[in-house]
Write a structure and sequence with these properties.
The chain is of the alpha+beta class and 346 residues long. Helices cover 37% and strands 25% of the residues. The chain has three domains: 71 residues, Arc Repressor Mutant, subunit A, CATH 1.10.10; 113 residues, 2-Layer Sandwich (Nucleotidyltransferase, domain 5), CATH 3.30.420.40; 119 residues, ATPase, nucleotide binding domain (Nucleotidyltransferase, domain 5). It is built from ten helices and 18 strands. Strands 7-6-5-8-12 form a five-stranded mixed β-sheet, sandwiched between helices. The chain has a five-stranded mixed β-sheet with strand order 15-14-13-16-17, sandwiched between helices. It has a three-stranded antiparallel β-sheet with strand order 2-4-3. β6 and β7 form a beta hairpin. α2 crosses α3, α6 packs across α10 and α8 packs across α9. The protein is globular and about 70 Å long.
Length: 346
């Protein structure tokens, strides 16, 4: 049973949150659509929509065409009322994003990091933005393992993992919902959102995709299965570089710039074979600064020769990792905007 401890104020906040999520997901909605998707009574929906109109949060967009009965009034958020703030971290640089309630990026700002101090740069960006805009959620993408509100990163010298409670710190400092996500998971989400726009009839729940990212000395991935990110029990899904090879070396140790194109192709086809055999994705997207685009044709031919037709994935190339990463974090941040109240299961 879903309860809110019988508190009318919390119940109202929960209902408002549900209504906002429906409008966010659809872009616009009628009272009947909201009542149907939220299971909130039509009377309560009418009352809350009137309050949201009075507060200037939403606006009427006119009436739908009549189907024989009374015309339904359609509502949408007023442009510019609510925003989200997202930060995309890389190794050595960062970008701040101003996001609207639909996950569109309105502004991108390079952040200045002194001596690689990302936290100070994030605070400076968010402090300025929260003074200027009504921010409803914060999102941060990180090149590391995400565990709850913390980030785990491996020290390149000691090979040990260090934990930073970045998400929890931001939630306490700003009193806002915070989503913390691994950069490649966010990139896979961004690619998945692009897929939804290109093929809207197929539905987000049918997205099955893998994104492989190649950097010098590092091969990693983000996976979407049935429209959902695959994280693993300890959030380590996608660490392909840690998979042992035939000579007992790790993939990251074997994937060297000195490999010939033929050697590179054989190695990547083997990796693709693992992924297709385990996850059976429809698409495998390949990208990153060290990916050899000139080998894409040979990779397709090698995979076709290796696997049965029903196991094959279509290989795609991602030319702009930054765009996909930013798009994914923008969408995640927008989706977090109205998470003020969480239902308690009994």
């Amino acid at each position: 049973m879903d309860t809110l401890n019988g508190r009318p104020k919390l119940l109202k906040q929960a209902n408002l949150s549900l209504i906002r999520k429906v409008i966010t997901a659809q872009g616009t909605a009628t009272r009947a659509e909201i009542a149907r998707k939220t299971n909130i009574s039509s009377t309560t929906v009418r009352s809350l929509l009137a309050e949201m109109l009075e507060n200037g949060e939403i606006e009427s967009l006119g009436f739908d065409a009549s189907s024989g009965g009374r015309k339904a009034q359609r509502y949408g958020f007023r442009p510019g009322r609510y925003h989200g703030a997202a930060v995309c971290l890389y190794d050595g640089e960062a970008y701040g994003l101003l996001v609207d309630v639909c996950g569109q990026i309105l502004q991108t700002t390079p952040l200045e990091m002194e001596d690689g101090m990302a936290e100070a740069a994030i605070f400076a960006f968010l402090d300025g933005l929260t003074r200027e805009k009504e921010i409803k959620a914060i999102g941060v993408g990180v090149p590391g393992i995400v565990e709850g509100g913390c980030v785990l990163r491996k020290d390149k010298n000691t090979e040990e993992f260090h934990k930073t409670d970045l998400g929890s710190t931001l939630a306490r400092r700003y009193g806002l919902p915070v989503v913390l996500e691994n950069d490649l998971n966010a990139t896979a989400i961004g690619l998945g959102r692009c897929y939804e726009h290109l093929f809207p009839r197929e539905g987000a729940e049918n997205t099955n995709m893998a994104y492989l990212h190649f950097e010098e000395g590092c091969v990693s991935a983000g996976f979407i299965a049935g429209g959902r990110i695959v994280r693993g029990c300890n959030n380590f899904a996608g660490e392909l570089g840690l998979v042992p090879q035939e000579d007992e070396r790790l993939l990251d140790e074997v994937m060297k710039p000195s490999l010939s194109d033929a050697q590179y192709t054989r190695l990547v086809v083997r990796v693709l074979g693992w992924i297709c055999g385990i996850l059976n994705p429809r698409y495998v997207v390949l990208g990153g600064a060290s990916f050899r685009k000139n080998c894409l044709g040979a990779l397709t031919e090698g995979l076709t020769a290796l696997l049965p037709k029903n196991m094959l994935a279509e290989l795609l190339y991602s030319a702009d990792h930054q765009h996909d990463y930013h798009s994914g974090m923008a969408w995640l941040t927008a989706a977090k905007m109205f998470d003020e109240v969480h239902l308690v299961k009994e």
